[in-house]
Amino acid sequence: MKAAIYTQKNDLDTFLYLSKFISELDKRGVSSILFSGMAEAMQFSKDFETFSDKKDLQERKADVLFTFGGDGTLVTSLVFVHDTGIPIVGVNTGRLGFLASFTKEEVFRQLDSIIQGDVKMSYRSVIEVVSPQLGDFFPYALNDISVSRKETTSMITIDSYINDEFLNVFWGDGLIISTPTGSTAYSLSCGGPIISPENKNFVITPIAPHNLNVRPLVVDDDSEIRLKVESRVPQYSLSLDSRLVHIDTDVEIRLRKADFKVALMQPNDLSFYETIRQKLLWGKDKRN
Question: What pLDDT score was predicted for residue 14?
């Protein structure tokens, strides 16, 4: 068995922790494949195999990808696993941790179960963006895509269509289209609803709308969403999770559900509702 390891951190504590983790994998006969940027920054032994993209993971026959960090680290790993079906184990060394569901200590206790596949599998939908201006830009997002103004303090307007049926003209700072996974991310901070991961929906959430009657909208994820932006400047910003690209305002974009899902390995006793109670401090009202 081979396990890929990915983190965006390069401090001494992370190096010592990962060294211990790699040693535990080795004791169980599991070979480690290190993210090349991490291996170079922390000066891991050159005896390790490394990866820098999806092709490397496939050629090295990785069976699982461990991410160490917060939810952002896990979401970023989408560019590596893409449609390979390689499951992701998110180890939370950050703060909130909706997706990175194993703690630093827990992953050691459950390492045998993870290796044997005796854990819960959660399959998450992905958004695909179709635009002639994307070129080689990775067109997928696990959390959300957002359209927002660029280099202007003025509002932008976004004409929106669902399956080519006109929906609305959104006036404001922009628009977020999120998956159920991303409903607890940017969309939530803009007033969007929380959606449990197994639902088959997209959430359309306006960013600072200039119409008081505009509210977030939940649509079926089999829908295709078409957006056309007007702005006082010639481009607008399009973000896919944490990746940013700029699009000309005369170019429409189409959003649809990707033809693959991302597999997350999670503890068997993990509950989505327990997670949101803990992370959002529900029930902490002293009246309870």
Answer: 93
Q: Helix and strand tally (H, E) in the chain? A: 9, 20
Query: pLDDT digits over 69-117, tens only?
Result: 999 999 999 999 999 999 999 999 877 778 999 999 999 999 999 999 9
Measured between alpha carbons, how far is 265 from 81 in angstroms, rounded to an integer?
14
- pTM equals 0.92
Query: Please, what's the b/e burial string for 232-260 (b: 16 or more CB within 10 A of its CB; e: otherwise)?
Result: eeebbbbbbbebebebebeeebebbbbeb
Each residue of 29-50: pLDDT tens digit?
Answer: 999 999 999 999 998 988 899 9
Structure tokens, 121: 């599998």
Whole-angstrom distance, CA of residue 140 vs CA of residue 202: 14
Return the biggest CA–CA distance within the chain: 60
Q: Going by C-beta distance under 8 Å and a sequence separation of 6 or more, which residues neighbour residue 39?
A: 48, 50
User: Which sign, positive or negative, has the C-alpha torsion 209, 76, 80, 90?
Assistant: negative
Helix (H, G, I), strand (E, B) or coil at 82: coil
Q: Which residues are catalytically annotated?
A: 71
Q: Rounded to an integer, what distance in angstroms lies between the CA atom of residue 172 and that of residue 155?
A: 5
Among 112, 144, 102, residue whose Cα is nearest residue 265: 102
